[in-house]
Specification:
The protein is an alpha+beta fold. 50% of the residues lie in helices and 12% in strands. A four-stranded antiparallel sheet has the order 5-4-7-6. A three-stranded antiparallel sheet has the order 2-1-9, sandwiched between helices.
């Protein structure tokens, strides 16, 4: 069975979380003050509504790295506390969404169903997907779906509550570019195509049409003569890629070979191909090159790109998008902090002590 890999945006648990373990606030507080860590214990109250230890455990199981932590360790406790903060935020958002009468529409539900079906295709369908979530993560599938719905609800609430109108000036983009210039370096790269011909036709990795035509024409095998005839076709105007497909006996006949400038050509290619490539210009077709293994090569240098800084004109759209995302996240953070200040939140860390 394939291992389950989930890209989750896990936020508000909706009403499903309250349905898991309904406890009245007074009972919850009495239990947690005694350090109750049982599944029904409560680890926080948000405006009098409990977040249970069971709910916290489920939320943690949905975190990819949580299962690798040693129970009771400092990192484990820190992860539990962080996830509790997330759940508190989710509960605050739930309350706000209800007060604003924001809910998922039929269109939202259809979108989510389609997305879950898409993810399930890679593991054999929705039944297998459900089984993997429940068996590998130990999380009820209904809870998992509720968290996905929560993500959509959060987006709708944020779109309404936090302004999405963001303008980033050209001066801001330029300042960001100057301060982070090292992030916008273009890697050097060469791109080339090759035709490989072996001295012994029996070594051929493929028998292309050009080879079969050559032999049917009554020619004895002569690698040098064959290579010269192949090169003449290119010089006479046929595209290198077309001739490679029709004539190359070796590998990578149908693709561009890309080599970073950080890599030594002499280490990447059999000698003396590296030094010959260094001397070629973009668009140039090499003469027939005999390697140290006696195989023959024809090369086309498609392009040579030197390393260096990318101009602002090539990256300004990406920078603008990045700055807008950062501004939107900051606005959301400010809004969430305000939401928390206006609420009554009680946290009982005894409930997550072990």
């Amino acid at each position: 069975m394939r291992s389950l890999r989930l890209a989750l945006v896990l936020l508000l648990p909706l009403g499903a979380t309250q349905a898991l373990l309904p406890l009245r606030a007074a009972q919850a507080q009495e239990q947690t003050e005694k350090g109750d860590t049982r599944p029904g214990g409560v680890v926080a109250l948000v405006d009098g509504v409990p977040i249970t230890r069971y709910e916290l455990d489920l939320a943690c199981r949905l975190e990819p790295n949580f299962r690798d932590l040693t129970v009771g360790s400092t990192l484990w406790r820190k992860a539990m506390a962080q996830q509790l903060d997330v759940l508190i935020e989710q509960r605050l958002i739930l309350h706000k969404a209800r007060s604003e009468k924001i809910e998922l529409t039929a269109s939202d539900e259809r979108f989510l169903t389609a997305e879950l079906n898409r993810r399930a295709q890679s593991v054999g369908g929705i039944a297998a997907y459900r089984a993997q979530i429940e068996e590998q993560l130990g999380v009820p599938y209904d809870y998992f779906v509720a968290r996905q719905k929560a993500s959509l609800l959060r987006q709708k609430l944020m779109s309404k509550s936090v302004s999405q109108d963001i303008f980033v000036s050209p001066a801001e983009i330029r300042r960001f570019y100057v301060r982070n210039r090292s992030r916008y370096e273009r890697r050097g790269e060469i791109r080339l195509r090759q035709i490989v011909i072996y001295p012994d036709v029996k070594e051929a990795l493929r028998k292309p049409p050009g080879l079969e035509g050559w032999l049917k024409a009554g020619n004895d095998w002569d690698a040098g003569a064959y290579a010269a005839a192949v090169r003449k076709r290119i010089v006479d105007g046929e595209r290198f890629a077309v001739v490679a497909k029709d004539c190359s006996l070796g590998p990578k006949w149908g693709e561009e070979i890309k080599v970073s400038s950080s890599q030594s050509l002499d280490e990447y290619f059999i000698r003396p191909l590296g030094e010959r490539i260094e001397a070629m210009r973009p668009g140039e077709i090499s003469k027939v090159i005999t390697t140290v293994r006696a195989s023959l090569y024809l090369l086309e240098l498609v392009d040579r790109r030197e390393p260096g800084p990318l101009p602002l004109s090539e990256v300004q759209t990406d920078i603008e998008r990045e700055l807008k995302i950062a501004i939107r996240k900051q606005r959301e953070l400010v809004w969430l902090r305000k939401l928390r200040r206006e609420a009554t939140v009680q946290v009982y860390f005894k409930g997550i002590a072990k």
